[in-house]
Structures are given as C-alpha cells and as structure tokens.
Protein 1
Amino acid sequence: MTAAWFALAANLTGALYAFGVRSYLAWRATRDTGMRLGSQPPGSLAWWARVLFVGALVLLLAAPVAALAGLPGLAVPAAVTVAGAVLTAAGTVMVVLAQLTMGSSWRVGVDPAERTDLVVGGLFRFCRNPIFTAMGMTAAGTLLLVPNLVSGAGLVALLVGVQLQVRVVEEPYLLGTHGAAYRRYAARTGRFLPLVGRLKAAALGEA
C-alpha cells in the first residue's frame, strides 16, 4: 500500500508540475504558456505519438490507483520496491531540473513556424532529451513500485510514444530550425542516454 501511495504521489506531483505549474510560470514570465498543441492528422505517426504519450500519463496515474483498489500485481522483493522508489523520485526531480534548464525555450509540442534557442547545457549536456529520459525513469520506477498490467502498459505506451515524438516530430523540427548547430550537438550527444543514439553525418543530411 505504501508503495502505491508513493507512486501515485510522485506521478501526480510530476504531472502537475510539468504541465501545470511550469506552464503557469512560463505565462507569468512571458505571457506564453509554452503549449503548442496544434492538431495532427488522425492516424499519422505524430498523432499516434500524442495519443500514446497522453495515454501513458493516464495509465501511470491509474496504476497505483488500481493497486490500491485491489488489482493484483507481481510480488517483488523489498529491494525492488526501494529501487522503484529511487527511480521514481529521481525521475521526477530530473523532469523539474531539465525544464528549468530550458528556460524560455520550454515547450510542450512543436510549432514549425517558431524558433527557440537550442538548449545544450545542464542535463542536456548528457543527452538530447533528458525530460523524456526522466519520465521514462519515473515510469520504470512506477512499474517496480506497483508491478501490475496497468503500469506495464503505461511504460510501454510511454516508450513508444516518446520514440515517435522525438524521431518524427522534434528532431526534424530541430534540424530544420537550427541546422548545423543541431547537427554538431546531435553528433556528440546521445538521444536518451549518454553517447547512445548519436546521429551520424548521413542521418543528419551531411555529405
């Protein structure tokens, strides 16, 4: 029960900060919420990225609620539960730190006509998408805290949705907007983990 309550609190806190508090702070500073939620053609990869991402957030909040309501899950050793708590807490903190690092460049979604500064400092020195990495940590931690079908589905939906969002939506935008600067950054910095998923010259459109 304690693990489920911890998972619920961490996921709820993370969601409220990432999409509520952060948006309010951006609006207060710039009169812009940072939300770029334009419609996507139904059935497109970008559309599926959004559906899976939103679905993952719902499932990860629902997983501990389901556990508290009596949904059975796997029995795991105490060490696994502790590891889940550490991952979940660390992921939540990393989301906050990475969003703060982005400053006025922070956005939810992409506006192809907009140009924001390319952020390469802070946690972005280690990977190009530390917010998504942190959310993956929180999702994995939730699965360890409440190992049931709902948390498992949430983790899978998040991983697939994030891959689609980054590869189909965000990287093409960043390449088109920042050109050579993003090419250099992507060539030396991993996509989600340090050194893993660096883009090579051919993939970046260079000779």
Note: The chain has a mean pLDDT of 88.
Protein 2
Amino acid sequence: MSDTDTTPEGAEQAAPAKPVNPDLRWYVVHAYSGMEKAVERNIRERINRAGMQDMFGEILVPTEEVVEIKNGQKRTSERRFYPGYVLVQMVMNDDTWHLVKHTNKVTGFVGGAKNRPAPISEEEVGKILGQMEEGVEKPRHKVEFVVGEYVRVKDGPFTDFNGTVEEVNYEKNKVRVSVTIFGRATPVELEFSQVEKT
C-alpha cells in the first residue's frame, strides 16, 4: 500500500446504493378487478424487457391482512384497499406512459388528461403506505363487533336468542353477549361464528 492510496481497506466491498431518481412520482393505474397482482407482475416484466428499470420505482397493490373464522379455524387473508387499482412509482414520459398503458389487463391511468396523467400527492401515498403497514402489524377481523350492538345467536344452546354485545375478545375470537333467559339478562360467552349481526 502506497502513501498516496487513501482508500480504507474494505471500502470497495460495499455495494453502491441504487441511485434514486428524483423525478419519480406515484401514479394510480386502473386494472381489471381481481387482476391487480397480475398487472403488477406484467408491468415488472415489461420494464425488465424494455430495460427501463431506472425510470420506475416501486409497484404496489395496497393490501391489508384480514382475520376470519371459517369452520372454527382462524384464517388470515389479504384484502385489497382499492380493488382495481395499482400504484406505480415512475418518471412520466411518452415511453413509460405507453409501457404501462399497453400492459395486459390495464385499462388506463387515473386523473389528469387522457395522455398526461396527474401524479398523486406524497401525502396520499404516505396515508396508503401507513394503512398497509398497520394492516400487517395488526390484522383486522373480517367481522367486527361493537359493545352495545344487538346480535342474534345462530348456533349452540342459545340459537335464535337475541342479545347485546357486552365484551369482544379478538385474541380468543369470542364475544360475551347478554341474552334474556326467563326474563333475566344472562351473560353468555360465544365464538364469533356462533353469532351474527341483526
């Protein structure tokens, strides 16, 4: 090592960070409903084939996790916030517009002029990303009960009784309902699957 070499050892081993294009903006693309993931995949494939990776950033299908009970089993599934829409971070020019617009199962861009769509604001993007993050950290239940809500028991020894929700326990998937038996309010603990909203 010479005196003029000032490069610290190991510096060349660090991979350079991918430069972020300052012209990237978020656009909303309208897709066939139920085909959002396919559109995301198709756009990525077309970007790679065209060699336009530096003109595009992220491509998102905004989703959240939803917990539902089926046959006594707890299942987590994904639910789309905006069915039929995909968010694309891109530099808008004629080439990128044509690439996205002519992707299979894309019907067009949302907002702006016909051939010059308007980007959505950073504030709107922040809200959507926040919703997605929250949906992963705290999955939402498909059926949500509210204390004081009137429900009907549809299964078990209290079938066809009506009552008022007193307590909801999402961890155990149980709800405590006050039903009237022989003229007296009686609290009964039931599974989510045993009650329905009236």
Note: DSSP finds three helices and twelve strands in the chain.
Protein 3
Amino acid sequence: MLYLNEKEIHKAITMEEMIDAIDYCYSIYSTERFQMPTRSQVLDGVNTLLVMPAITTQAISTKLVTSFPKNLDYPSIQGLVILNCIETGRTKAILDGSCLTAIRTGAIGGSAIRHLAKKSAHAVAIIGTGLQGLYQAIAAVTVIKITDIYLYNRTNSKLKPFVTSLRNQINSDINIHLMESVEEAILNADIIITATSSITPVLPDNKSLLENKLIIGIGSFQPRMRELPEAAFHLSNQIIIDSDDAIKETGDLQIPLSNKWISENQIQTMSSHLTNNHSPNYSDNRSIIFKSTGMALFDNVAAVSIYEKALQKGVGQKLN
C-alpha cells in the first residue's frame, strides 16, 4: 500500500496532467461505465462531512472530506482518498484528500477554460483567495496565456500570503492586481472564477459587468450556497455543469430554476458538450456559465492518475 502526502502528490503529477485526467473523466461520464451513488452529506451547523464513493473499470475509490469554512489555522477542506484494487478489493493507496481535492478542482476549472473560454481571453478574476482560489489561478495560467490576474477577497489579510504562494508557482511576467471591490476585480476580466463558500451571491447583480465573460462557479456545493447573481443567468447563452447531480446539489442552480430565470433545457453537462463537439457561444455579448459541484468520479480518476504516476517516478511511502 502506498501513502501519498501533499508534497508527494505534487511530485507525482502536474496541473496539465491533472487537467487531461479531468477531460478523460468526462469521457468516462459520457459512457456511463461507472458506479457513483449520490454523495452523503452530514451537516453540523456550517460544517460538513462528505463521503464520496465511486467504482470504475480501473479502481474503487472513497473520499472522506470535511468542510469547515470558518477555519483560520487549518485548511477549510481536509480529507483522505482511499484507492482499492478493482479485482481484489485490497487497499492500493491512501492519498492526502485536501491536496487531491484542491488540484482536481483547480483542474476542473482549467478544463472549463480550455474548452469554453474565448481564444482572445487573457485576464482572469479570482473571487476568493483560499486554497481553491490558488489552484484555480494555477490551472488558468496552465491552459491559456494569462497576462493579468485580478484578485478579490472579503478578508484583505489573506491577499498578500495568497500572492506569495501564487508567485512561487506561476510565470513572473503575469501581472497580479489586488482589488478593493468585486466590481473592480471583474471589470477587465475575460474569465471570472468564484471560489467561496458564500450563501449569498458574491458577484454584483449587474449585467454590464458580467456580459461577454466566462463565469466559473466552483465554490458552492449545497442548496443553501450561492455565488452567482440573477443577472448572470439572464445573460447566459450556455450553462454547462460538471455532472447532472449539480442541479440537485447547489443553490446556484436550484434557485434560478425555481425562480424561472432559466429552464433545465438550457443546462448541459460538460461531457455532453464535449461529446457533441459544441462550440462556446458568446454572440450578442452573452456570457457562459460553468458550474461545478464536484463528483466522486473526479476523485477516482484523479487518484488513479496520481497513483500510476507516483509508481512510475518512485514517489510515495510504502506501508505494510
């Protein structure tokens, strides 16, 4: 059995390789050759325990993850991913779930940018400068030539440490801007990424600030959570989701549907979008929304990719 901590996961896989793994995951999703029950969520106030199992032809995986949004001294998301052999059931690997979740979620955003952003896109706004925001920025600069990153966080004290971490992992030629308001952050951005656990929209309800952009909602994963305002849905030509479960799991889709701002026939999974070779449509200054709530299948494919590359590179700690 192999144990892979955060440092070892980073040695094993690159962001570009993880984005490729996410794209491969969408192809598995379209074939339906997997088992993935709806994730179990146990709520304790604002805190959540999630249990996310999945079975593919390659492996059995289980992710145990906690979400504690008020954490100050620890990451808000922590957990483990257990990988079992599909043929014998034996445990093959245990992986740091916080790191795996951060990289694979960043890669989900990176895949969305790869397939949905305008070819001319060069500026990204990150709303929420926690761990998820960091990996979204890293993924963005991995897939397209970003010249400017605009950052906004409700807690200003988190911005400078975030920039230090980001600078250590991206091209020094990229301009990083610390903005004092969301409006300023998104004004000149081609891509907007929200990476918060907010229960109210973090973007302004203003069409003129949201038009002609790719809007990626990464943070909200429960019916009580929302990051995106009404105006974003009235502007949207295409609404792409990472899985069908996203419709049931997040307020960012349930509320617009219940208020009839959108209808279900406007929503399409990314796997369907890719399988049918659809093109992003920004006509008439419309925008595109990509909404992710994550799924256990991502964790399965990500864990298998990391495990295989770790074996190739001799990375990880062998446990008896």
Note: The chain has a mean pLDDT of 94.
